[in-house]
Amino acid sequence: MNPEDLKIPTHVSIIMDGNGRWAKKRGMPRTFGHKRGAEVVMDICRESSDLGIKYLTIYAFSTENWNRPELEVRTLMTLFGRYLKICYDEAKKNNMCVRVIGDRTGLSADLQEKIREMEEGTADFTGFHLQIAINYGSRDEMLRAMKRMMEDYKEGKISAGDVDEAHFGSYLDTADIPDPDLMIRTSGELRLSNYLMWQHAYSEFYFTDTAWPDFSREELLKAIEAYTMRDRRYGRV
Question: Quick check: 236 pLDDT over 50?
Fold first, then answer.
């Protein structure tokens, strides 16, 4: 299919899987795969923007990932700190708004400060929107949303009649961001892994055996081509 014939999704979400396995196949530690995977993120941001995608959400670290080996977790947290600096610099050059979703209270004070600085510094950028899910789990997100909503109810800010899908969505980490049209998962796994379960209600899913460190423009185009060929019916008969 010619690129000009593709139906470009507004919002793409990605589960970046396979970094550790990619490194292991090359006789390298898992952390080597994570470093390579972080480099691929900026490449895919540029490619997504060039193709006309407006929003990209990436699953960087889940609430369950704290159960990984301590050294790997420490390395990932250090990598996030370095990556956020690179991401911030790229955002300022390319008019990119960057936002972190997830429970940031579980992160170090230094990492929280880097996130705050980056979000505030890119909040008014409109060229491309990148959401990074760090310490994120969809069930945790929905529980946090419901707790905030219950607090507002107790304080008389809302009534039971106010609550509908749109109102509940305003309490989620992705408030004001359109739901993903296309979800991509790399490295052959066929599950959501507690990722944007509310937001993916009507998303198209694309699974590839390609590990995230090998993901490229060509792989992204394959996913968009599959998305283009599907009949988006949203439950209608």
Answer: no
Active site residue 176: no
Structural domain including 41 reads 3-137+179-229
Is residue 219 over pLDDT 80? yes
| Catalytic choice (5, 50, 65, 209) | 65
User: Hey, which residues does 129 pair with through a beta bridge?
Assistant: 55, 97
Instruction: Clarify whether 152 is annotated catalytic.
Output: no
CATH number at residue 190: 3.40.1180.10
> Is there a domain that residue 169 lies in?
no
* 15 found inside a domain: yes
Could you give the number of structural domains in the chain? 1
Residue 172 within a domain: no
Q: Say if 155 falls within a structural domain.
A: no
> pLDDT per residue over 5-61, tens digit each?
899 999 999 999 999 999 999 999 988 998 999 999 999 999 999 999 999 999 999
Annotate the chain with DSSP letters as a single string: --GGG----SEEEEE---HHHHHHHTT--HHHHHHHHHHHHHHHHHHHHHHT--EEEEEEEEGGGGGS-HHHHHHHHHHHHHHHHHHHHHHHHHTEEEEEES-GGGS-HHHHHHHHHHHHHHTT--SEEEEEEEEE-HHHHHHHHHHHHHHHHHTTS--GGG-SHHHHHTTSTTTTSPPPSEEEE-TT--S--SSSTTTTTT-EEEE-SS-GGG--HHHHHHHHHHHHHS---TT--
List the catalytic residue out of 2, 5, 17, 176: 17
